[in-house]
Design brief:
Elements lengths: L22 E5 L2 E4 L4 E4 L2 H4 L10 H11 L10 H14 L3 E5 L2 H18 L6 E5 L8 H6 L3 H4 L9 E4 L4 H10 L3 E7 L1 E2 L5 E2 L2 H14 L2 E5 L23 E4 L10 E5 L20 H16 L2 H20 L5 E7 L2 E6 L5 H8 L2 E2 L1 E3 L3 E4 L7 H20 L3
Parallel strand pairs: 3-15, 5-6, 5-7, 7-10
Antiparallel strand pairs: 1-2, 2-3, 4-12, 8-9, 11-12, 13-14, 14-17, 16-17
Helix pairs in contact: 2-9, 3-9, 10-12
The structure holds pyridoxal-5'-phosphate.
Pyridoxal-5'-phosphate binds next to α4.
Protein name: Acetylornithine aminotransferase
EC number: 2.6.1.11
Subcellular location: Cytoplasm
């Protein structure tokens, strides 16, 4: 029997434009809907399901944790928090971690750290430099940092204290700093995700690091989407051989269990003191266990190397099949965070791909985004290409 999916749910707020299918279960990189139709997962719940679905080592670990303790409280010590923090410190080369529950929460904490850092240095109204096309979340503060009027329009007044510059333009950043004495931090994504898969150049990352050191600014890098192995390094900025002072994480860290974290280096790690920030759920034990096991399995299975290999293969195959087409502007990204920019809007592809048995998303209207689970096999990468290419060709042959 085919389950009928209502166009709009009568009891949910109408906050999402949804594809008319309902997902029921998953295994590896496959998902089945309530009618039993199979999909290849090219989206991972938006870069969340690092280890795919129903992972044979993650799930038993989570089941075991459920029987121990799901939630304690930050009134008390939590060895699992310490263990995951130690691991993140080891992987990042940074020094201390604050745990929360989502990407925007991690970014809120980063913004508070930057402001407090500035106030501690005598800036009554500290300012943070952010980027055009940035996406940092949908709370009032993170939406104000986000560079997309479509996200913030209707929710003013926005928060002050953000200065916007174009990405990958070190002169613009220098000018912003020269004009504004209260700048205390720079905040951007290593690869802009929602903005359309726009990577920061390696030299730009290195130049920003030098400028932040010269000026005493915090270098804050939002790795909520591009972090946790997605590009083939633990953190995408590591391709540039630099370390930020503040790094928000979330999405892929818990492989599907909600979690957020802010990793801080020595300059920022002691800024927040008892009573200045916190979260009831932050550091929840189930989430901590999910983070620890995700990283452990990634290490045991050599997933970083795997992502570099299979991601390279996927990108090369997309370039071969789509690169020469006149309607394809650019294929960007690294590892398993890839974007195919078309010369026309293509959000219609999300539904058409689902019909063809492939889950993907479109960002910035005209960029097809592929962020599959990091366990994607080489055969599954080929299957993504085989499913996607005819859809793109058909779309490009249609008039707008
Ligand atoms: C998704 C995302 C966020 C927001 O994360 P939520 O968990 O949805 O609040 C912030 N920054 C970046 C770069 C993201 O991709």
């Amino acid at each position: 029997m085919t389950a009928f999916i209502e166009a709009a749910s009568p009891h949910l707020m109408n906050t999402y434009g949804r594809v008319p299918i309902a997902l029921a279960r998953g295994q590896g990189c496959r998902i089945w809907d309530v009618n039993g139709k199979e999909y290849l997962d090219g989206l991972s719940g938006i870069a969340v399901n690092t280890l795919g679905h129903n992972h044979p080592r993650l799930v038993p670990a989570l089941q075991q944790q459920l029987t121990q303790l799901i939630h304690g409280s930050n009134y008390y010590h939590a060895p699992l928090q310490e263990a995951l923090a130690a691991k993140l410190v080891q992987l990042s080369g940074m020094s201390n971690v604050y745990f929360c529950n989502s990407g925007l929460e991690a970014n809120e904490a980063a913004i508070k750290i930057a402001r407090k850092y500035g106030v501690d240095r005598g800036h009554a109204k500290p300012e943070i430099v952010v980027c055009e096309k940035a996406f940092h979340g949908r709370s009032i503060a993170t939406m104000s940092a986000t560079g997309n009027p479509r996200i913030s329009s209707g929710f003013g007044p926005l928060l002050e204290g953000f200065v916007r510059v174009p990405p990958n333009d070190i002169q613009a950043l220098e000018r912003a700093g020269a004009d504004r004495p209260d700048v205390v931090a720079v905040f951007f994504e290593t690869i802009q995700g929602e903005g359309g898969i726009h990577p920061m150049r390696i030299e730009y990352l290195q130049q920003v690091r030098r400028l932040c050191d010269e000026r005493g600014w915090l270098m804050m890098i939002d790795e909520v989407q591009c972090g946790m192995g997605r590009t083939g390094q633990w953190f995408a900025h590591q391709w540039a051989g630099i370390r930020p002072d503040v790094m928000p994480l979330a999405k892929g860290l818990g492989s599907g269990v909600p979690i957020g974290a802010v990793v801080a280096g020595p300059r920022a790690a002691q800024v927040l003191q008892p009573g200045q920030h916190g979260s009831t759920f932050g550091g929840n034990l189930l989430a901590m266990r999910a983070g620890l096991e995700t990283i452990r399995i990634m290490e045991e299975d050599g997933l970083l190397q795997h992502v570099a290999t299979v991601g390279g293969q996927l990108k090369a195959a997309l370039e071969r099949a789509l690169g020469p087409l006149p309607g394809v502007k650019e294929i960007r990204g690294q590892g398993l965070m890839l974007g195919i920019e078309l010369g026309r809007p293509c959000t219609v592809l999300v539904g058409r791909a689902a019909e063809a048995g492939l889950l993907l998303s479109v960002t910035a209207d005209s960029v097809i985004r592929l962020v599959p689970p990091l366990i994607l096999s080489s055969a599954e990468a080929d299957e993504i290409v085989a499913k996607l290419v005819p859809l793109v060709k058909t779309l490009l042959a249609e008039s707008e």
